[in-house]
Amino acid sequence: MFCNQCEQTAQGTGCTVKGVCGKDENIQSLQETLLYALKGIAAYSYHSRVYGERDEDVDAFMHEALFKTLTNVDFDLNDHVKLALKAGEMNYKAMELLDKANTGHYGKPGPVEVPTGTVKGPGILVTGHDFMDLEELLKQTEGTGINIYTHGEMLPAHGYPELKKYKHLVGNYGGAWQKQKKEFPAFGGAVLATTNCVQIPTDEYRDRLFTIGITAVEGVKHIESRKDFSEIINKAKELGDLPEAPGKPLTTGFHHDIVLSLAPKIIEAVKAGKIKRFFLIGGCDGAKAGRNYFTELAEKVPDDCVILTLACGKYRFNHMDFGDIDGIPRLIDLGQCNNAYSAIQIASALAEAFECDVNDLPLSFAVSWYEQKAVAILLTLLNLNIKNIRIGPTPPAFITPGVFQVLQDNFDLKLIGDVDEDLAAMMKGE
Ligand code: SF4
Fold first, then answer.
1. Atom of ligand 1 nearest to the CA of 43
2. What is the reported pLDDT for 200?
């Protein structure tokens, strides 16, 4: 299975990625791709369901696709490619549904400057993707003197009206998930992990880390229900005050409706040559070497270009000052990885305004891929026939050269390379 800790595909008993089960390795690769995408779709659907939202088509596809991996032994490569693209279509629906669930429950997010660092008083840091866990914790800590901080993929919570109304949601601490072993001990308070992308803790902070819901880590206290956060609240009180140590603020909260309200200004700036190109740089981050590419790329994007970003990959550059072009921010944080839905809405609206295909827009994609949701999102982009996407730092471990070739042939999918060469090519729309 793909390993969340070392970014390697573990080989050996039970691992079929290299075709040791005897299946054609390309078929096997596509089935693995499908399974990872299903896990990503399941994650989004799980979050939506908590708010009472579900999509019959997505549910039906989950059954069909899983059944197919069991049944489809006819080694039909094209059939498997079609199924993988259908997973992309279903992931689009799952992301759309989650956007509906989140905005229905918490209101439409708006741009916000989020303080970082810590303020004096006991604190709980919330990591992961589950806004409802955060909301319930905010309710139960109101008036207790405990401050709540976001970490990683929770940062966009600050943009939602019904979450930011809590005064003790004081800021964000830290960055992407792979830094947890450094950042959680340094934080000093209690930590709540709500979803995947939680690392096995060191002894330094194991006793003040708590998991909830779908998340569980051996040796770590699991909170059984979000109706009762008393254990973590008591732990935060016991740990005492965090220091007054402010950091540099971060900006988030650019829902597509907000970006689209700027559309006339954006279109005017593009027509006047003030905005030359848009770059979507973001995705799932990880610890492996080569990911500095995304930092460097963001740094080198010319001043007359706008960067759209999302997911935890943004922490590589969201602390930098990118300024604006005629009041349009040069760095637009769309939110969590599922807000790839927002990126698609923006791209579609621009294509409509310019009366062209999305592939003819001055828009380039550089996506850092890591885990299951990233696979699902990549398939969504491919299913929308978006070409010339660059992914990295390495090809997904379960994608065989044969399957990668199919994706290259059909979608001009590229691996990241030299930053300067890639940037020059992207500026030419390649
Ligand atoms: S963006 Fe991807 S890698 Fe990052 S926390 Fe979310 S699921 Fe994990």
1. 7
2. 94
